[in-house]
Amino acid sequence: MEQIIFFVVALLAITSGFYFVFAKNPLYSILSLIITFFSIAALYILLNAQFLGIVQIIVYAGAIMVLFLYILMMLNLNKEDESKKQNLSKFIGVFTAGILLVGILGAFKGLNQTTFATGTDSGVGLTKNLGKLLFNEYVLPFELASILILAGIVGAVLIGKKDL
């Protein structure tokens, strides 16, 4: 039963992801992205990573999508704006996606078939184990990321600051 739910949610995530890319209306595209975020959160929960699933819902499906909808309302996109795009930029986008696809297929070709253990560890994905791993083995990258985020915030404040 769990595998069936997993495949249904994964198919929903893939379908809504494709609809996000190919939708003509930007509002429908953003709504399909919300569905994608919720289905990814469901996949996290099915994989016994409850903390990541809840963070996915709170941060991405909540805060980031509100930001996307706000930007969409501020831009006020019309169909006339879509036709003004040049064919060269569309060609560059398709060409870049093709190169990415070839790279991904090359990476999959080099993979060996591996067998996975059938038993699952009930402690995988829990907050306690994630905290131990984050603050023991990955403390330096974690602190460097926090310094980069702090530098970005200070830079944004300085750029947005009005001269008095």
Automatic annotation (TrEMBL):
Catalytic activity: a quinone + NADH + 5 H(+)(in) = a quinol + NAD(+) + 4 H(+)(out)
Transmembrane portions of the chain: 6-23, 30-47, 53-75, 87-108, 138-159
Keyword NAD among UniProt keywords: yes
Single GO molecular function: quinone binding
Pfam families: Oxidored_q3 (PF00499)
Entry keyword set: Cell membrane, Membrane, NAD, Quinone, Transmembrane, Transmembrane helix
Enzyme nomenclature, EC number: 7.1.1.-
Protein origin, superkingdom: Bacteria
InterPro entries hit by this protein: NADH_UbQ/plastoQ_OxRdtase_su6, Nuo/plastoQ_OxRdtase_6_NuoJ
Similarity comment: family membership: Belongs to the complex I subunit 6 family.
Protein task: NDH-1 shuttles electrons from NADH, via FMN and iron-sulfur (Fe-S) centers, to quinones in the respiratory chain. Couples the redox reaction to proton translocation (for every two electrons transferred, four hydrogen ions are translocated across the cytoplasmic membrane), and thus conserves the redox energy in a proton gradient.
PANTHER family registered for this protein in UniProt: NADH-UBIQUINONE OXIDOREDUCTASE CHAIN 6
Protein name: NADH-quinone oxidoreductase subunit J
